[in-house]
What we know:
- The protein is α+β, with helices and mostly antiparallel strands.
- It has helices at about 40-45, 55-60, 65-70, 90-105, 110-115, 165-175, 180-190, 195-205, 210-225, 230-245, 285-300, 310-315, 320-335; strands at about 1-10, 25-35, 50-55, 75-80, 80-85, 105, 130, 145-150, 155-160, 160-165, 250-255, 260-270, 275-280, 305-310.
- The chain has 13 helices and 14 strands.
- The chain is elongated, with a radius of gyration of 26 Å.
Amino acid sequence: MSQLTRISRPPTHDCSGDFSALDISVPLYVVMKERGESPDIHDAMASQHGAAATRQVRAELPWRKQRALVDNRVWQQDDHRVVVSRATPDTWHRRVMIATLASRGVASHGTAARLHALDGFNWFDEVHVTLRYHQRRHHHPGAVTHVSRVLEPADQLVVHGIPAVIVPVALIQLADGGSDTFSKALEGAMRDGINPAWIRHVAARYDRPSLGGTRRLVRALDERVNSTLPRSWFQRLAARLLAEVGIETVDEHPVHDGNRMLAQLDLAIPALRIGIECQSWQWHATPADQQRDLVRKRRLRRLGWDITDCWWSDIDRIDDLVDTVRTVIAERSERL
């Protein structure tokens, strides 16, 4: 006998920038077995990186059978709340799985960032878990445990078989902790199609005087999404960094196609017809935006201009941008 259980999924990664289009809580219905119809414990362990909570084992096996499997070295007891199959390798994912099972928390902070494959966290090795405030506190010696008054069931999902906080919550936690790689993680999430409106929505709900990360996250979004003063600041910063290595540029250079102004380039080297665009996600949020930008660049190319894009992430690796611009300068100097 089965029953339908309602769960929530995170909003779809709509990049339109229109928050009204976001699907904030779409019901999914999955078939769950009635109590007493527990899945085979070995199948459960296989889907959980070789680990299982003792409460999962208890649903199928008597304590004596569990003890025999441990004594016969088929399983090993991680602590009194988790058993682990000796046939599975001791990986980072397994350590995270064990910590979430033992604490009944969810992977969070840099651990969640790595599970979500956010930029800058590929080799993050620590294990962080977060518990909801009203949960019974269980700690695991292999993990850093956090407690949140704001975390809700809708802020959690399963990634690679491991319960974890959703991307916006992970970004708030990283910003609150002052992570040096926070900006890189945010930009990577946006490139992957995470809608800034969803991030803002979650940040607004999490905003507390004690959580400075929410405001830091919103400021970072403003710098990367808005096209007014923060965009101009980005443009000036890029110009200054290029000038420091001897590449002088002109700000907001107009390019005309006949009597019509086709573009106003953020930075330009007019004598060589080289343009540098300080890109904002606001202008690349949807396929229509991307297509419009592509058509514009093709027209600029037909007029003899070579355009190089500069993104926020390039500021952290300015040497690569400089090398690209120098290569373009060398090529254009030979032709002109």
